UniProtKB/TrEMBL annotation:
All copies of domain FAD-binding PCMH-type, residue ranges: 159-341
GO BP, sorted A to Z: lactate catabolic process
Compositional bias segments (type: Basic and acidic residues): 135-157
Lineage top rank: taxon: Eukaryota
Annotated family: Belongs to the FAD-binding oxidoreductase/transferase type 4 family.
Name under which the protein is recorded: D-lactate dehydrogenase (cytochrome)
The EC number(s) this enzyme carries: 1.1.2.4
Co-factor requirement: FAD
């Protein structure tokens, strides 16, 4: 159908609809016609003349529409050589006047003398605040090494990956002062707090300032009647929940990534955790408001200090900050949305003959609508490792297993028990292998196996030079069995036989914990290649190279394979608009030919 035919058919359809319109609409059109003819000596119109007027009005509208369309089409035809598209331009417009058509991030920083002068000015700033500067500013090699060595991942410290100075801040004005000094001397700034990230987020590839947020760990205001709490960004999520427990215990913050993670880091990486199947991720409505210090030292509030549960006032700047990995601004204060604790909870574990059977059970349980809080998949190798570590004081059946956490009223939990047992047995689990526990202590003992996964792999791989490369991807839930099976085969063929898998099966998130000898270049390359194939495998299954760990330095190349070039350009354009000097956490997140991170 041509553009002319489409427009004409719409106009004809509109006219026809007038003759078949509803009685109220006919009455409206009829009364309109009567008003237009109110000066007539005939008075009230008959129903026949009313209908005639309605048809005449419809034909008039049709004529106007056709005339306007004909004029529009003639203008378009003469301008574009008869090539007309109502679905948008077929060619991209020229880049004239658009400053970010090819955005390039600058990597030009101050000299060694500039950095030394900046450090002296940092000391002077804290002295001027009545503080001992050495309580805030340090160039101690051990402190700097801690920020150059990715203890949780696979990057080693070397010249150029450590910061020049670490600065401990306590409040928003401190952060502003540090950023202003960094601007003056063109010094990169890398945020650091819990130090639990897994993709090199806090490594300093261009030296500069490591701004340590760990002392910004205060609860500023608690509003239990509204279900929110205002905190500094350096507080840990576990400490938030401990505070809630001490002050009534009816509320909690539901995001639960790894132990030690802080609110600011969680915002930066867009994390989630085991509760995501019920409560969602950091990209949801968990952060009602954020106070953010921008790259020029200006402080903004993403919601103006508002604590309403929702808002449609402008676009959501907070959503841009979440997942930006500290590259757009440094979050200093956050209003967290809390959730009510359920009156009863329970834990279950079931073992299966293979990953496919476990995954089919996941789909069955999710579609049943029962109140599942967590569904975790641990493959047979992970279960073997947990048993070998002796960290749990018990053993588990060494098969591919599902761990469930449930919450709700007693009736809902009882219904969930029945549904989980029924689904597990349906897909191959032996009924006696399904453990279900509502007693808080006993339930905690079952769940200990899931909590111990990372530590179990670490404790059973302590040979000299061995590190554990922890990575994640995410796929549609239905694709998870294939992802796990093919990845297990790849790990075995590559000689990485101690690799264990744990996944948030309820949302398709897959984690691999890969022990490897970081001092052996050949094995390091093999491991790097295996992780690359894992990312690409997930992307081919319509998934993502990272479900919750973020991009950092480790997955920049895979982000470029995942997102369209135009999307990456928009990301860079936003970055340049807010941080034109590229001072905030440079070398992370954005694919660029000007910097290639090394493993």
């Amino acid at each position: 159908m041509t553009a002319t035919q489409r427009i004409t058919s719409r106009a004809l359809g509109a006219a026809r609809s007038l003759s078949g319109t509803s009685a109220p609409a006919r009455r409206f059109m009829s009364s309109s016609a009567r008003r237009q003819n109110s000066s007539s000596a005939q008075g009230a119109q008959t129903s026949a003349s009313s209908a005639s007027n309605t048809r005449n009005l419809g034909l008039g509208l049709l004529a106007l529409g056709l005339g306007a369309n004909a004029y529009h089409l003639s203008q378009q035809s003469s301008a574009k050589g008869n090539k007309i598209s109502l679905d948008g331009p077929t060619d991209l417009p020229g880049s004239e006047g658009y400053p970010f058509a090819e955005p390039r991030l600058p990597f030009s920083y101050g000299s060694k003398q500039d950095f030394e002068a900046a450090i002296e000015e940092l000391k002077s700033y804290f002295t001027s605040q009545g503080e001992d500067w050495d309580d805030h500013v340090t160039t101690d090699e051990d402190e700097l090494e801690r920020r150059g060595l990715d203890e949780n991942g696979h990057r080693s410290s070397s010249e150029g990956t450590k910061p020049s100075v670490a600065v401990y801040v306590r409040d928003t004005p401190n952060v502003q002062a540090v950023i202003r000094i960094a601007n003056k001397y063109r010094m990169p700034i890398v945020p650091f707090s819990g130090g639990t990230s897994l993709e090199g987020h806090y490594v300093a590839p261009f030296a500069g300032i490591s701004i340590d947020m760990s002392r910004m760990d205060k609860v500023l205001a608690f509003h239990p009647e509204d279900g929110d709490v205002v905190v500094q960004a350096g507080i840990g999520w576990e400490n938030v929940n401990h505070y809630c427990d001490k002050n009534g215990g009816q509320l909690f913050f539901p995001l639960d990534p790894g132990p030690g993670a802080t609110i600011g880091g969680m915002i930066g990486t867009g994390c989630s955790g085991t509760n995501a199947v019920r409560y969602g991720t950091a990209r949801g409505e968990h952060f009602l408001d954020m106070k953010v210090v921008l790259a020029n030292g200006e402080v903004i509030s993403t919601r103006g200090g508002g604590r309403a549960r929702k808002s449609s006032a402008g676009f959501d700047i907070g959503k841009i900050i979440v997942g930006a990995e500290g590259t757009l601004g440094i979050v200093t204060e956050v209003t967290l949305r809390l959730a009510p604790r359920m009156p009863a909870d329970a834990v279950a574990v079931a073992s299966f003959p293979n990953v496919e059977a476990a995954s089919q059970t996941v789909n069955e349980v999710l579609l049943s609508g029962i109140p599942v809080q967590c569904i975790e998949l641990l493959d047979y190798k992970m279960i073997q490792t947990i048993n070998k570590s002796n960290l749990c004081g018990r053993t588990y059946d060494e098969k591919d297993s599902l761990f469930f956490k449930l919450s709700g009223g007693e009736a809902a939990v009882a219904e969930a028990k029945e549904a989980i047992t029924r689904a597990s047995v349906k897909f191959g689990a032996k009924k006696e292998s399904v453990e279900f526990e509502t007693d808080k202590v006993k339930a905690g003992k079952i769940w200990e196996g899931r909590k111990a996964a990372l530590w179990a792999v670490a404790s059973t791989n302590e040979a000299p030079g061995v590190k554990v490369w922890t990575t994640d991807v995410c796929v549609p839930i239905s694709a998870l069995p294939r992802l796990v099976r093919e990845s297990q085969e790849d790990f075995q063929k590559s000689g990485l036989t101690e690799t264990a898998i744990v996944g948030h099966a309820g949302d398709g998130n897959f984690h691999a914990l890969i022990p490897f000898n970081a001092e052996d270049p050949e094995q390091t390359k093999i491991t790097t290649d295996v992780v690359g194939r894992l990312c690409e495998r997930a992307q081919k299954l319509q998934g993502t190279c990272t479900g919750e760990h973020g991009v950092g330095m480790g997955k920049i190349e895979y982000l470029e394979k995942e997102l369209p070039a135009g999307t990456v350009r928009v990301m860079k354009a936003i970055k340049l608009a807010l941080d034109p000097k590229n001072l905030l956490n440079p070398g992370k997140l954005y694919p660029t030919p000007d910097f290639t991170p090394v493993h």
